[in-house]
Amino acid sequence: MWREILSGVLIVVGLFILSVSVYGMLKMPDIYTSIHAASKAAFLGIMPFLISAMLNGNPAVITRALLIAAFLILTTPISAHIIGQAAYLTREPMETEGAIDESGREGSAESAVTKAGD
Amino acid sequence: MPALMFNLALIWLALLLLATILLVIRARSTMVRLLAADVLTLILVAVLVLFAQREGAAYYLDAALILALLSFIGVIAAGRYYRSGRPF
Fold it and tell me: What's the pLDDT score for residue B54?
């Protein structure tokens, strides 16, 4: 009995986190802030589903769910990093209010400051 | 009771899938589109895990694992291609 209740609660938690993630992707103004909503929340949204499937006690399900969890833990940060790097290197504009590029490369806010200092 | 809960959860996930597909179609830039496609596969993995739980069958999770793997490879290849004009 408690297993059914716990798995239902976990499914609701996962649905809530996934909904927040998709809402964040719809609302965030540029790619650099969308990555936060997408990678963190989407990954955290899958975990409750996997744990809820593991509660079944079936060993075949548990091993596969553990594999999926481990694989997602390894790959979600890497793909988010690749997307952010590609967006930054192709000079995707920062639309967020008050956002500044402090890297010091050509055209960024920091390089404008150093040029004014010279 | 559990079957009703699974069906409601699947309907809610289908609505999320619809929203993400709209985001892929109408995204502001290529990278947002790629990110939305990544989230799309994650939601599909969630759908497959729910199916595995509802049917009590483990083989849906194989499909979920392979989908996550292919999505990772696809995002890496597309991101690097967009950045430097060649995948690797």
Answer: 87
Query: What would the pLDDT profile of A66-118 be if each residue is shown by its tens digit?
Result: 999 999 999 999 999 999 999 988 888 887 788 887 777 776 666 655 555 55
How far apart (Å, rounded) are the C-alpha atoms in residues B22 and B2? 30
List, as ranges, residues 60-99 from A with C-beta within 8 Å of B: 60-61, 64-65, 67-68, 71-72, 75, 78-79, 82-83, 85-87, 89-90, 92
Give the distance from residue B26's alpha carbon to the nearest chain A alpha carbon, in angstroms: 10
pTM of this structure: 0.87
Report chain B residues whose CB lies below 8 A from the CB of A75: 68, 72
With an 8 Å Cβ cutoff, is B35 touching chain A?
A: yes
Task: Write down the number of H helices and E strands in chain A.
Answer: 5, 0
Could you read off the pLDDT of B29-74 as tens digits, one per residue? Answer: 888 999 999 999 999 999 999 988 888 888 999 999 999 999 999 9
| Contacting residues for A68 by C-beta, under 8 A, at least 6 apart | A46, A50, B45, B49, B61, B64, B65, B68
Phi and psi at A40, nearest 5°, equal: -65, -55
Side-chain-side CA neighbours of B76 within 13 Å: the count stands at 11
**What ipTM did this prediction achieve?**
0.88
**CA distances for A1 relative to A15, A43, A66, angstroms:** 22, 28, 24
Interchain pair A58, B39: CB under 8 A: no
